[in-house]
Amino acid sequence: MLTNDEYASAIMQWFDTVKAGGLVLPDGWFGRPYDNLHRLSFIQKRPHKLLLELDQQLLLVFTALNRVEIENSELILTNFSQCVFDWQEYGNLKPHVAVYQTGTIKLVPPPGMTISWLFGISGG
Question: Which residue in 19, 39, 58, 93 is a FRET match for 86, CA 20 to 30 A apart?
């Protein structure tokens, strides 16, 4: 089974290229599609988890993430046991949480930006 090193590296490389992206959760867009762009503010690898923070307010905690890939320039994170989305509203910092046991989380580059390199890493 792969460690989270490759996943974290791929995520950082994607953000280094696009700088910011839209967030699509298993139940739909977070914010307005193609309008709200989020920057990577923190990433941490743990033995069984990957923590991904956007804008110092949106925290995605993946447990047993098993696939990270680029498809149509979008960063796709899927095949996880669980993803906890712990976030605070912009402006008043009111807290919220959602838990996903299945689905796909996508980070979408700004309109007109394409990623010319491809990768796909999956674990067993």
Answer: 19
